[in-house]
């Protein structure tokens, strides 16, 4: 399992459109993807979950990925979050 | 029954009540958990495919985006997981589980410190309502299979409901809650469907009625009207249609009087969506963009960024056409919790509008900065409301200068020569207009407040409705004084109160020397027609007798032939 802290450096944080893009990207992987922020843990494939975290630009969250394609998933998701 | 006018026009039709399905859910446990779970699977599939279908068939980009977002929400794994959990662990019936899950997600969104996220709570409610209508097997929101000629009555109408409304079938809307800037009101004006909002008790009284007729302008509602009334309505509707067709030939015409004086007809708006109706009706610009609702619809003050986006969208929609933005006009009579305003005995004579803004730079500066930033994208002007004294203008301008300096230092571009104007709505400002005119680029007369303050009459008070009149010579004298004061300084004067759309008075206002009329989009063409057929010299001849009139009855007599 990959377990890393990541600082989100997207201009609008994980707002509506980026949140939707995040979920679309997450669902392309088989691995389980979990995001933790402010002690709240959510499913990375859930738009409601991601949006209910309200992560803004410059905040750090924890990313856990477990599954057969975890390395590829981590690579593209961490690139996405710091784009 | 009466409410608030949201969109003018006559209409009648069969009553269709749109219910809040959340209120229909009864707390219950299930004896057959497997059945609840399989129902959930079945309904989920239907809801998601329905939403995908809606998004495919949507006619505007906004609608497509709404339904796309909704179909993602409907298929959301967290949402599903929580519902299944509630069914399994608490043996709740499906409808209860959906409602509880939706409410808990809505609470999470509403608690976030960001306007955008807060509003998403409504989207969750919308999607959950779709599940509930299926789970409870009610067809109240079958908006897509409406009969012809219906009037929709609801507590409030949600964005996704309005997006589905078939303009050819719905004759009118009535809602219990909401003001003229509510979502329902804005949509009604865009679709040009008569509508009344804030009609308290309408759901209860309409429950036993089958037909309703409304007068959207007077905001009057008639349940189960007589045949006589319906015949009268038919004539009104026919007249309105013919009149609209006739007016259509003025759509591309210039607002020039018969003797060659160029005037302009602008529109009063409150939202981005309103610009569509303005352009469709040939509006030459926006004479009044109200910004109150940006501040009233949320639990915290809107950020500079969200205001900037709002002003920018309107600037872009209007292109080269001028857009006059009125800074925050709010006071003790409105409930805006985060402002922490104390209730006042006389809210209209109290702490409101520019008086609050000059005191609260934390509110005023973000708005001014947002307007300045948006001025880079169109032809924007700034207008300060409720000015009573010279000093208020000086102070407001100082704060504006500070904002300009800040933006300059931050290398953010804006229109450095942005025009600044004031509302003339307090008699003191009208009396001092020659002095005030030296400080600003334009005046705009707000007649609703000007009349209220001049005659000391509350226009909402039924017992005093006889006193409140556009035709009162005291008001006309103040307007005359304002225009004379402006002329001395060589600045233009517009009018954005409802007196500007009083067609009987167009000639007098032209005669007094008014330069622009700012009206609701539905009135643009009728005012323009009046301008085109008027002769300014002839109009001017009306002025002395009106200014010499003893009372409004005498003024009315002058206009009665």
TrEMBL record, chain A:
Localization (cell): Cytoplasm
Organism superkingdom: Bacteria
Gene Ontology cellular-component terms listed: cytoplasm
Entry keywords, A to Z: Cytoplasm, Phosphotransferase system, Sugar transport, Transport
InterPro entries reported for this sequence: HPr, HPr-like, HPr-like_sf, PTS_HPr_His_P_site, PTS_HPr_Ser_P_site
GO biological process entries: phosphoenolpyruvate-dependent sugar phosphotransferase system
Transport recorded as keyword: yes
Transmembrane segments: none
Domain HPr: 1-83
Pfam families: PTS-HPr
Family assignment from sequence similarity: Belongs to the HPr family.
PANTHER family recorded: PHOSPHOCARRIER PROTEIN HPR, PHOSPHOCARRIER PROTEIN NPR
Protein name: PTS sugar transporter subunit IIA
Biological classification of the source: Bacteria, Pseudomonadati, Bdellovibrionota, Bacteriovoracia, Bacteriovoracales
From TrEMBL, chain B:
PEP-utilising enzyme mobile domain location: 147-216
Cofactor(s) the protein needs: Mg(2+)
Molecular functions (GO terms): kinase activity; metal ion binding; phosphoenolpyruvate-protein phosphotransferase activity
Residue ranges annotated for the Phosphotransferase system enzyme I N-terminal domain, each copy included: 3-120
Documented EC number(s): 2.7.3.9
GO biological process per UniProt: phosphoenolpyruvate-dependent sugar phosphotransferase system
One cellular component (GO) term of this entry: cytoplasm
Chain positions recorded as Mg(2+) binding sites: 425, 449
Residue positions binding phosphoenolpyruvate: 290, 326, 448-449, 459
InterPro entries named in the record: PEP-util_enz_mobile_dom (IPR008279), PEP-utilizing_PTS_enzyme (IPR050499), PEP_util_AS (IPR018274), PEP_util_C (IPR000121), PEP_util_CS (IPR023151), Phosphohistidine_dom_sf (IPR036637), PTS_EI (IPR024692), PTS_EI-like (IPR006318)
Ranges for domain PEP-utilising enzyme C-terminal: 251-531
Catalytic residues as annotated in Swiss-Prot or TrEMBL: 183 (tele-phosphohistidine intermediate), 496 (proton donor)
Catalytic activity: L-histidyl-[protein] + phosphoenolpyruvate = N(pros)-phospho-L-histidyl-[protein] + pyruvate
Keywords: Cytoplasm, Kinase, Magnesium, Metal-binding, Phosphotransferase system, Pyruvate, Sugar transport, Transferase, Transport
Main location: cytoplasm
Subcellular location, record wording: Cytoplasm
One Pfam family in the UniProt entry: PEP-utilizers_C
NCBIfam families named among the record's database cross-references: PTS_I_fam (TIGR01417)
PANTHER family associated with the record: PHOSPHOENOLPYRUVATE-PROTEIN PHOSPHOTRANSFERASE (PTHR46244:SF3)
Entry's family note: Belongs to the PEP-utilizing enzyme family.
Function: General (non sugar-specific) component of the phosphoenolpyruvate-dependent sugar phosphotransferase system (sugar PTS). This major carbohydrate active-transport system catalyzes the phosphorylation of incoming sugar substrates concomitantly with their translocation across the cell membrane. Enzyme I transfers the phosphoryl group from phosphoenolpyruvate (PEP) to the phosphoryl carrier protein (HPr).
Record protein name field: Phosphoenolpyruvate-protein phosphotransferase
Native organism: Halobacteriovorax marinus
Source organism phylogeny: Bacteria, Pseudomonadati, Bdellovibrionota, Bacteriovoracia, Bacteriovoracales
